[in-house]
Structure formats: structure tokens, C-alpha cells
């Protein structure tokens, strides 16, 4: 990846004149079956560009309580766009119940914000959202005249997990998910392992609007090809290997099974959630420092979150399992 960055031909992407950025945008748009794409510095900016391109001031987007573009982005769509979120509670599988979506869509009445957009996320907290649900929810939104955006920061994790179920190809599965949406955001800097960057995909006309928002958000970058080359390398080399991360997450979950007060959710992809109860909960405060001292990073307090990725190997997972078991005397 460093070598690809070193060798990247560069221009000025503020003038749409950087060959490496243009090549990346064409590659990701084609891969996911869209007309066009826009390279942006972060997933947060990508979602912001999407929401502000689908919605005007006084419109609203329907979204899940735990989705990144509602909960974890500083309320950007409301702050910068005066776009109101309509958050809904998730079902246990991460979906937003169809009846709740339908009930949240407002009639055209001066009392209400205008319902304009349904935003979904896949994977959500590492959970693969079932494809038939994605098809039903996006069909409902379309029937009701709403646009549909996917926060697919971790879309390729979803695609690899789905491919393991269907026996299909991960890229084909990514396209199958993406084709249900008017816009899709993907991160190169999460599981794919690039240092920086996301892409927003959509129609040519939509991406032209998003380009304007990116400029306003300060996301126009000049010799950005050095970053696009890393993202392009990640698309070429780091998609199929996500299956290794998923296997290591399973290994971590299996290794932590059976500790008193430690409840492990079986991971779909590369994120492992661990809930601490009873005696384990009482000891929770010292756990992360204990792990950090051994170079093992996690987040949370009573609900811990571990992520496997291309810098973590089986020996590292085993070291984490050993350290956690020892901490709890198990
Ligand atoms: C990380 C993440 C983002 C935001 O990405 P940044 O590049 O950190 O701004 C958006 N959505 C999801 C689902 C994410 O996991």
C-alpha cells in the first residue's frame, strides 16, 4: 500500500484533475453498480454529503437509534443542514421494523417535517442485516417516495459474511446489497485498512450535488491521489481477506466462552461484544487498563467492544483471550 501511494500519479482534485482520485471513483462506482462516486476524507463527511444532497432544510430522514449517521456524527445533518432526524428503535437483529418505518413517514401537512429519506446501515455494530429485510425496507421507502441511503462504512464486511452464507462472490454480494439504495457510503479506512478516506456512490446528478456539499464541508483535497491510491490498493487486496478477520472474531468469542459473568455475543463479522454481569461487572473498571498494559485495545465498560482487523493475528487473539481469562481468574 505504501508503494502504491508512492507511485500514484497526482493532480489537483479540487479541479477534478487528479488521475488517481478519478480512477478510484470510477472503480468503486463500477464495483457497486453506480454511475458515479465521490472520494471524501471521512465516513462522517460522506454521510453528511449524502443526507444534505437528499434533503433540504426542514426535511427529515428516518434512521435507527444506533446508526452512526444519527448517533455518532455530532448531529451534523441537523447542525449543518437543518435536516431533522426521525430515529427509530432497532429490533434485535439490527433492523428497523417495517411497521415502525411506515408509521414514521409523515403525511404532507404543515405540522410535520417532510419525510424524505430512509437511512440504513450494514453492517450495524458488526451485524449483517438480512438481505430480504434490506429489500423490503428499501422497497417500502421507494413506494412512499423516500430516497434510500446506505451507510456502508463496513459494507465489505457485510458482503464477505453474506458471501459465506450464499457461496457467492463478495463483490457480487456488495453489489446486491448496494443496488437497493440511491446512495451508498463505504469506508476505506475501517476493515479495508487504508489510512484515510471514504467514497459516496450514487447517480451522476446526485454526486454533482454531493460534490458541492463536500466543498462547503471543507472536504476538497488537492493532491489527494496519494490517499486514493491507498484506497484503491485496499479494494484490490483487502476485501477477501476480511474473512480472516471474521474467523479471528469467532476465535476470540469462542476463547471467552464459559467465564463466569462474561457473556459473549456470537459475531457475524469482525466486531465482538462482551457483556459483563455479576462478579465480572464488579471488576470491569480495571480490565481495559490491564489489557492496555499488554498492548490489547478495546472500548467500553460493562459492554466491551473488540475489533479484529488486518493488524491482528491469531497469536494476538490468543494473547487477548489469555489476558482476559487470567484477569477474571478463569
Ligand atoms: C466509522 C464509521 C463511520 C464514520 O467514519 P469516519 O471516517 O470515522 O468519520 C460511519 N459509519 C459507520 C457505520 C462507521 O463504522
Could you characterize what this model shows?
By secondary structure, this protein is α/β, with parallel strands linked by helices. The chain has 2 domains: 236 residues, 3-Layer(aba) Sandwich (Aspartate Aminotransferase, domain 2), CATH 3.40.640.10; 86 residues, Aspartate Aminotransferase, domain 1 (Alpha-Beta Complex), CATH 3.90.1150. 45% of the residues lie in helices and 16% in strands. It is built from 15 helices and 10 strands. The strands form 2 sheets. It has a 7-stranded mixed sheet with strand order 1-7-6-5-4-2-3, sandwiched between helices. Helix 8 packs across helix 9 and helix 12 packs parallel to helix 15. The chain is globular and about 60 Å long. The two termini are 41 Å apart. The protein binds pyridoxal-5'-phosphate (PLP). Pyridoxal-5'-phosphate (PLP) binds next to helix 3.
